[in-house]
């Protein structure tokens, strides 16, 4: 009976220590999270910023006859959004204009 009572007290001590450890870890992690990061929120990392720029360039419509590239030459100088780079035989700001004297015009046969 004495051995069982000693084991019961030992289990109770372990439970109390585990509970205190969990609560103190929760306190310190919440303190770190609240006071370590800026108040306006966590700033975007370079990968998230690059992903949002790539999404914006991917949303540019080039009529299926061109492509917009993030690392392309910006028309209008630095800081301007990328424009469509048209395939051969197409022109315009969205590559929708077929050039009349194009040698690859299959409809002209």
From TrEMBL:
A single GO molecular function term of this UniProt record: carbon-sulfur lyase activity
Pfam families: EGF_alliinase (PF04863)
Domain Alliinase EGF-like residues, every copy: 46-102
Taxonomic superkingdom: Eukaryota
Descriptive protein name: Alliinase EGF-like domain-containing protein
Lineage: Eukaryota, Viridiplantae, Streptophyta, Embryophyta, Tracheophyta
